[in-house]
Structures are given as structure tokens and as C-alpha cells.
Sequence to fold (458 residues):
Amino acid sequence: MRNGRRGLAALVAVGLVATIAACSSGGGDDDTVDTSAPVTIKVQGLPVATDKANRAAFQKNVEQFEADNPNITVKATDEIYSSAAFTTQFAGGTAPTVIVVPFTEPAALIAREQVADISKEIADIGELDSLNPAALGVLKADDKLYGVPQNVYALGLVYNRELFTKAGLDPDKPPATWDEVRADAKAIKEKTGVAGFGSMTSNGTGGWQLTAQTVSSGDVIQKADGDKFTSTIDNPATRSILQWQHDLRFTDDSIGTNVLREQPDAEKAFASGQVGMIIATPSYYNRYIGQYAGKPADFGVTSMPQANDANKALIGGTAVMVTSTASAAERAAAVKWIYYEYVRPQLDTTAAANQAKANNADGIGVGVPLLPLFDDETQAKISAAIKPYVNIDLDHFAPYIDGVKKLTFVPEPSVATQQIYKSLDTVVQQVLTKPDADIDALLQKADKQAQSLIDQAG
Fold:
């Protein structure tokens, strides 16, 4: 889903890194491009108007990029990618030149030939040989590269430190298991009257959250055997998590009555103190303070709570890709922009320091931990470069930083992911709205529906 946003991911390394060679196979319709000719590209990634600081920072970067590349005009849009809306745009050739998509999308976009092979343009830059291969896996096919990772994240649990204190809980010792989350949610509701946990159930977030909790309880909702994919939604871990949500709603009354939220709704409710805990990543912090005016002192985050000694967390991220309808000139300009906006600040120490200084001045969080995009040596240099400008309370992020080091990371399902997530929304909604919901029957039906979606996807 949409947890990834702008920021410097440089303060935590969790053992995912290695070195690869940049792809060098050619792509596109023309190997000769006049890099001085005027060209216009439309790019996604502009933060929404309510996220004022990040939006202003993005627009400053556009202005500087255009100053450095006077032949390139960048038209930025704050439209957020959705597979349904963009199907029409791809068909009509009206999609932005540069798109920003969740990691669940690249495989299908590549298979449908809706995104361009940018191997040659990336190789021409010549500075990406230290990229984390775990972040590139979903962006490659047949040794060709179709995108660049914007960020890679492992989901965690964000919690309100002030509500923890009011409920008699220790904000420096957040819950480590789902049973502890339930107990803390109940305490928050009883002591403060605020919903202890905020569930997401709409626009695919119900299925996404359920998948994340299933992984951290020791199972997955989809398995692969070679090129054969099978739905495994009807499993004990998913069943136990649905029962857990049902119990929070109808036994403990600690999840509240507003159970038809999607991610922005849950994030807004949390930032305003209406919810004590939600599933999110540390990168939500910048939306928390910039878009929703949350109090920095109240923000706490820990690694994903566990069950059944799973020691696992769902890994995700966002990727930046170029649409296949782009001309050779547009493709070259697009990759220049991608490098300038997304890669350079996380690779070049001077650029990283300048970006960190500017973000600090604009009130944007610097030092928010994500998983590393580059190898240990590169990450260490970036960490040192931005250290003078770190403006977050690292103690509030320490439970996450320490916790993710102990976890194994599991990628999101590979086939029909967003469709399956949306189909699971109904399951979660029924569990949270019907005291007599038949979880076994719901899972059996959902499993068959998911397999049908997998089969349709080929």
C-alpha cells in the first residue's frame, strides 16, 4: 500500500544488502537521443496539497532540476497510482511519463508491457552498482531493469506515547506480540476512552493489513511452486488474526465503532489522538507531522508484533517506473529525473547532506529509518552525512530499529495482489461489523475467490 514517501533512509541496516552490477542490456526505440532538444515529462510523486512541507520541497526540487536541465520541463501531479484508474490511462496513452507504484504492481505492469525497459539509461548513469538486490527483484525481468526503488520498508506498529502513559503503560516498552497489543488496546480504551487499535478495512487496506498480520503470525496468503501460484488464505494464522480483530471489537470494545477506514483515514485518526495504535511504517512520521499536524513527542513506533514465534514481517516499498509509451527522449529525461529526485539524495553524500539540511529547515523529519537501498559502506557514508541534521527523537524510533534486526522479511503476494486485498476487505468488514460472523465460512469463500483471481491473472 502507500506507506512509502519522501525521506532519507539511512539510519538502520538490517542485513538485506549486497552488491550487484547495473544492467546494461539495451532498451527502447532509439539508441541515439538528442539530450539538448526540448522535452516535457509528466511525473507522479508530488505530495498532496495538505502535505505542505513535503509538497514545497518537491516543487523546489523540480525548479532546481529544470534549472540544471533547461531543455527538460517537468509537470508534476499529485495523483496517486491505482490500477483501476491507470488501466484507462495506459490504454489511451495518457499516463504520466514517470509513475510511482507499490511493489505489488511492477510484475503485472512489466508483463503487460506498460512500462519501459530502462536498463540502458540506468547503465549510462553508472552509479547504481551498489543498489540492494532485494529492492530490485520485483523490478527486473529477463535481465532487464524496469524501474528504481524509491524506498523499501518493513511494516511495524505506530503507537501514541501520551496515550500509553495515560493508560499506565510504558511507552518505551511497546507491545511485542499481538496478545500484548490486545491487552494494551484494552487498557487504553478503559483508561482514556480512546480506541486502542485502529483497523483498516477499505480500498484494499483490509486485505493488506490482514496479510501483514498473517505473516507476523507465521503464515502467508499465497504460495508459489515454480510458476504455479496457490491461494492459502484459509490458514490457522489468518483465522486467528480475524478472531483477534473480532474480539477487540465485540469482547473488549477497544477497536471503536468506526471500522470502515482506509489508510489515510486511519493515519488521520491516529494523528489526532482518536486511536492509540495502527499498523504503519516509520515513514508515516512525515505525514503525521506535515499532513495531519500530529505532535512529534507523541509518536512512537516499534517493529511488527508477533505470534507463534514467527519473527517475520511483511516487506514492501514503492518503485519509480517509466511508461512504455515514452519516446527515447522522454525516457532519457525521465531517468535523469528519477536519479535526481529519488536516487541521488540517498547515494551522494553531498546531495544527501544538502537535502537533509533543507528538509530540516522545512520541518521535515530527517533520519526516519527505512530499510537500506544500498550496501553497508554506502549507507554508512550517508548516515554520517545527514547526522548533523537529524531532527527526530531517535529514542522514539529505537523499538523499531532494534526490532527489525531480529526479523525475517516476507514479500507481498506476487499475483493479483491488489485485487485479492480488496476482496479480503469484505471479510474484515464482516468480522468487525457482525457479532456472529462465521470466520471459517468467510475464509473458505475468500480462498476460492482469491484462487479465481490468481487463475484469471494467468
User: Anything to note?
Assistant: The CA atoms of residues 85 and 442 lie 29 Å apart. Confidence is low (pLDDT under 50) at residues 2-30. DSSP finds 17 helices and 13 strands in the chain. The domain at 39-153+316-391 is CATH 3.40.190.10 (D-Maltodextrin-Binding Protein; domain 2).
